[in-house]
Design a protein that fits this description.
single chain, five-stranded parallel beta sheet, disordered C terminus, Rossmann fold, six-stranded parallel beta sheet, 10 helices, alpha/beta, 33% helix
């Protein structure tokens, strides 16, 4: 079978890039591919902060080293390129103007079609660059129909995302009523809405976790994960919460309705207060949600392989 040249993201701890660098090559290998991981897997990993989810200098340095390695790599006729993040930092795609294998695929986690985007000052020129990069791919995989519809790219395929490979804590004693696991930024937290929740139900607890074990344990000890985001890339917080026995409550918008049943989604402050009251009151109608896209998440790798082994076509 063909060789997959895998281009991982900079592996920042407590973000999913940390485990994608190991998990994706492992699953591709299990499905019969020869996998070549581009980049230094032993690179010292630094933790980001709430304002900067990846250390910019380190991420750029990492991607430049990948470019250098790729330009010195001898390509085979049936090589397949799989890029783990289409747009961040987004330097690697430009090398394809000079050296391009027969098939190129990428995953798009988020784009600058987002008024809260980290690259807001240059959003007007960043999106056209992303669109050009996407056109250089046979297919661009994406995590939700919400994002597919927002992008309007002809070559996107919704795959959702895989389940995280971490130990879970669904049977912990529930000692915390309501938590938030979002970065305290305008994109991730509606401060005004959360203040109203706190006025009625008490303090929302936040915890700066330093490992996945600590984060999952925190979820396992909590009754409700409150999500007030104005924009998200998929909704992994929902998946993390459910896997650890914590009930997520999110807006009835973005990608959330594709992951969470309607009784856990709110469209107004009053609906949110009602759902929280029911959950904290032990109403069994709200006892435990299911992940609506569970089947798709279980088939994530098989879906991608089915796409990359098809005959090459030209959607543009």
């Amino acid at each position: 079978m063909s060789r997959i040249i895998f281009i991982p993201q900079y592996p920042t701890p407590m973000r999913y890039s940390e485990w994608w660098i190991n998990e994706i090559p492992k699953h591709f290998t299990d499905l019969g591919f020869d996998v070549y991981v581009l980049g230094d897997e032993k690179l010292k990993v630094k933790r980001g902060n709430t304002e900067m989810f990846s250390p910019i200098n380190a991420a750029i340095e990492f991607e430049c080293s990948q470019i250098d390695e790729y330009m010195n790599l001898e390509l085979k006729d049936d090589d397949i390129l799989f890029i783990a993040d289409l747009s961040f930092p987004g330097l690697f795609m430009n090398t394809l103007f000079h050296k391009k294998p027969s098939k190129v695929f990428s995953f798009c986690h988020a784009t600058s079609i987002n008024k809260f985007d980290y690259f807001k000052p240059i959003r007007h020129c960043k999106y056209p660059v992303e669109k050009i990069h996407a056109k250089m791919c046979d297919k661009v995989f994406i995590g939700s129909n919400y994002h597919k519809n927002k992008l309007h790219w002809k070559n996107t395929v919704v795959t959702y995302l895989p389940f995280p490979p971490f130990k879970t804590f669904p049977n912990e004693e529930k000692t915390i009523d309501i938590i938030s696991a979002s970065r305290p930024t305008p994109q991730k937290v509606d401060s005004e809405l959360e203040e109203k929740v706190e006025k009625k139900f008490g303090k929302i607890k936040r915890m700066e976790c330093k490992s996945w074990w600590e984060y999952y344990k925190f979820l396992g000890q909590s009754k409700i994960l409150l999500i007030t985001s104005h924009e998200d890339t998929f909704g992994y917080q929902i998946v993390d919460a459910i896997l650890n026995g914590c009930i997520p409550i999110a807006r009835n918008s973005l990608a959330y309705p594709e992951i969470l049943p309607s009784e856990y989604l709110y469209g107004s402050k009053w609906e949110l207060m009602y759902i929280i009251e029911k959950v904290l009151g032990g109403d069994y109608h709200y006892s435990f949600p299911k992940i609506l896209c569970e089947k798709q998440m279980n088939n994530f790798y098989k879906k991608i392989v089915s796409e990359i082994t098809k005959e090459k076509d030209y959607p543009f």
